[in-house]
Amino acid sequence: MVSSIALLLSAGLAAAQTFPVDLVGTWSSKSNATLTGSGFYDPVNEKFTEPSLTGISYSFTSDGHYEEAYYRAIANPSSPECPQGIMQWQHGSFSKQANGSLVMTPIAVDGRQLYSDPCAYKTAIYTRYNASEMFDRYTVSTDSYNNKTRLDLYQFDGSPMMPLYLAMSPPEMLPTSTLNPLTTSTPGGAKSTSKVKRSELPLNHNVFEKRTVQMQRADSVWWFGMFLTASGGVLYYFF
Ligand SMILES: *[C@@H]1O[C@H](CO)[C@@H](O)[C@H](O)[C@H]1NC(C)=O
Ligand SMILES: *[C@@H]1O[C@H](CO)[C@@H](O)[C@H](O)[C@H]1NC(C)=O
Ligand SMILES: *[C@@H]1O[C@H](CO)[C@@H](O)[C@H](O)[C@H]1NC(C)=O
Ligand SMILES: *[C@@H]1O[C@H](CO)[C@@H](O)[C@H](O)[C@H]1NC(C)=O
Fold this sequence. Notes:
Layout: H1 2-16, E1 25-28, E2 41-42, E3 47-48, E4 55-60, E5 65-74, E6 84-96, E7 102-106, E8 112-116, E9 125-128, E10 133-142, E11 149-155, E12 164-168, H2 204-212, H3 218-231
Antiparallel strand pairs: 1-4, 1-12, 2-3, 4-5, 5-6, 6-7, 6-8, 7-10, 8-9, 10-11, 11-12
Bound molecules: 2-acetamido-2-deoxy-beta-D-glucopyranose (4 copies).
GO molecular function, one term: unfolded protein binding
Protein name: Protein ROT1
Main location: endoplasmic reticulum
């Protein structure tokens, strides 16, 4: 009797420990300039803040939530005067599979992307962003060179991402619940525009389709420009 209770307790404990504690915290690439949280993306005003340097950041909680922030420059050697840049934010839930893989499931309506291609568009393009991810495996270690706690994430094909270092623990994150349900219109506030429904933001792949059809829908690009103007303070180009 006593041993079966003990067995039940330990089984319960094992089930509760689905989320690895070694991942908990905010991790950032070497520059430590791009970090998750409200300093990167402000969901109330639909606004990105440009970090001082490019980089990526992931945060994990002890109860299965994650958030990610990407700020990347896209090199354009054929036209160096036309640098492209991208800021992406999403959050959701993650789980560690029995085989060690991490499965990341974003809240699809919440992710956002700001894409800048100054030679193709007059304004940066603001869209929804939804990309689920799978990491084949990960390791947490102490970097022998700088003595920092280091996270290596390996992509689905086994190739390593750039190393991430522990920047903050507990993690710095926005609320982990759904921020922008599809049916919600823009909340009030002097700077927001009541005309724009978030559900009308297209997904990012639509933008790239638009680009390949050579601005066929230039009217909607202009519309995004208007939206950015209305929400105020949003960068147009970040180079
Ligand atoms: C681990 O499991 C996940 C889902 O269960 C699967 O998608 C993934 O391919 C597996 N990884 C390896 C390395 O077998
Ligand atoms: C988000 O992406 C996932 C897979 O990547 C897809 O199954 C899902 O339908 C997408 N959701 C929306 C709202 O686009
Ligand atoms: C490395 O960090 C640990 C704790 O974070 C500290 O105790 C140790 O002294 C450090 N070692 C070096 C060589 O700085
Ligand atoms: C990274 O930045 C955060 C926030 O500014 C700071 O608290 C932390 O100490 C930094 N970490 C490293 C390793 O420089």
